[in-house]
Structure formats: structure tokens, C-alpha cells
Hints:
By secondary structure, the chain is of the alpha+beta class. The protein folds into 2 domains: about 1-85 and about 260-365, Beta-lactamase; about 95-195, Methane Monooxygenase Hydroxylase, Chain G, domain 1, CATH 1.20.58.710. It has 13 helices and 17 strands. The mean pLDDT is about 95.
Amino acid sequence: MRADSPERAGLDPEETRRLVREVRALTLGVRPWAAGVVLVAGRGPVIAVEEAAGWAVRYGGWDPEAGAGVELPARSRVPMTVDTPFDLASLTKLFTAVAAVQQIERGRLGIDARVGAYLPDFRAADAHGVTVRQLLTHTSGLRPELPLYDCADAAERLELLRAEAPAGPPGTYVYSDLNMLLLQHLLERLTERPLDVLVHEGITRPLGMTATRFGPCPDAAATEDQRRPWAKADRGPLRGEVHDENAWALGGVAGHAGLFGTARDLAVFCRTLLAGGSYGPARILGPDFAELLLTPPGLGFAVDQPWFMGDLAGAGAAGHTGFTGTSLVLDPATDTFLVLLANTVHPRRGKPDSRPRAAAGSRLRRAVR
């Protein structure tokens, strides 16, 4: 990939300038949408927009009595840059999905095989006939999460997962972190390698994504002053440690959360999938299997979701969001990609608002010539 002008990318320069202005505005004001943002967007092999705005670290914590963040003095703040890593949160699921499809391509994993064939000790999933495809499409019927962060030790956490039965009939869509946790266990059992090694050796290293890794990541954008009652654990201000409480309880490497990375690295990831699984001399998937990931309803990926894609949705656009404020969209129909990373939970989580993500997607779609 190369940085070049919007015109060289086949994008309208005025629309891309508006995109930059609108994204920068998200960091302004007393209560901004996010303390800081990084935007990378382009078409084909061209990065046409790469901008950072706001602060990687703006607050020292959250004051419950004042109902506001505790502003750091200017000398103590850390400005956002295009190289700032972010806690990618649920974007991690995309990498777990790619790692699974790699095993499917190699013939080691059956997409419609029962999970119990690989994990017979996961009794409930085995008894209910949950399949690999259902894990990848969130149709296993498993509930969204379990309180693994309240378990006494690793053995108790594992037992909870083994005994967890679907809350609804398999085939019913319920977005669930548990799907990717079971998939992680399956992949690790199948390959005899931990997930962080699978992601590094199979995805990030061959693609040259040197800034993408499981934490800790000390120079990452800050996330939350994590305390009860608004959070599920009392950990205080977080920077460089995984925000998700269950991923934290699991040691920072989890199928649903735990990766840190930069917007430019994610642009490479998007470009690889748009190019059929190859990037330069590296190939992480064959074209048919890259297409399989993105074919509705998507494997790990969400497909054509206007609530965060805006007008990019409608012709097969795929992507995902992360609770910390991260998102990416790739659109095979226009060969465009949009990565918008923000620390929206800094200094404290609030009601999720994806309207700025959708607006950015719509602006990029209008820029396509």
C-alpha cells in the first residue's frame, strides 16, 4: 500500500476533506464523542486519508460526584498520532475468524463439524450439537457472555465454559463473546498452539503488521477508569492493558478481545481481504476462502450493517466494531476501506453511539467516483 492523493485513489478530494473535518470535530468540546481518533481510508492499494486528532491520554480518571472526567494538565496529556496503538476490543474476533478459516482451508477443520468432535469435554456445546459455522456466525444460541472475571481461578473459568449450554435454539442469532472463546479453545486444541501464536504466525507476521499484537501495550491510547458500578471490575485507569474484563481475567489473550493495533496495520488487513487474501508476496488465505469470510452473513464479520457502515452498506460491505471505540469496514463493491479508531470509553464508558461511524462510512461512499 502507498499513501497518495484522493484523486489517485479514485476518491473525490472535497468529500475526503469533509470526512477529515467531521472526524476531527468528534474530539472537540467539553464532552466529545471521543478523546482522540485516528482515521485511515482509501481505495485499492492507496491510502488517501490518514489523520489523527485529539488525545491518546486526556483524563486522569473519572469523578463520579462531578459526573465528568478529571482533566490532566496540558503537560501531562498525550496527543494522538497516526501511529498510536489502540485496544482493538472486538476487532480481535476478526483475527480469530481468519485463524479458523485458515484451518478450514487446510482441511483440518470442518466448517459444519460439531464443536464436540474437537472439544468433547465441552459437554453442553457437544450435547446441543453446536457447529463451527454457528460459532463463526453467532448462531450457536450461546448467551452474550459469562462473568469469568468473578471466578476464583482458571479452572473455575474453564468449567463455566465447558458447562455453558445454549440459551436459545442453535440457529438463532445472538451476538456472543462466548462463540469466539469456544473457537479459541478449539483452535488451540486442534493446532496445539496458543491463539496469540496462531495470529502472529498466520496473519500479522506475514502481512508485516508489526504494531498488532496481544497486550500489554504501554504506549496505547488510554481507555477507562474501570470501576464498579459502571464497570464489572475495579481496576482503575487503564492504558495498555486490555479493557474487556473477561479478556483481562483470561490473561489478555482471548478469542473475542485482547489485540492492540494501529489504524495503518488494520488498513493492511482490509486490503489483504479485498485482494483475495494476499498482500504483496504474502498470502494468508486463498481467494475462495477470503470470499467465504465476507459472504453473507459473514464468518466473524458483520455484512451490510448501516448502523455503523452508513451508505457503504448494501452491496456486501463487511466489518466490525469494538466496544472501546474501534471499527473497520471494507467494501468489495467499491474496493474501499475505512478504519476509524477512537478511545470513546476514555475516561468512562457510556451509551454506545455509532452514528459518527455511520456518518464516516456515508461520507466515504459519497467520495467514490
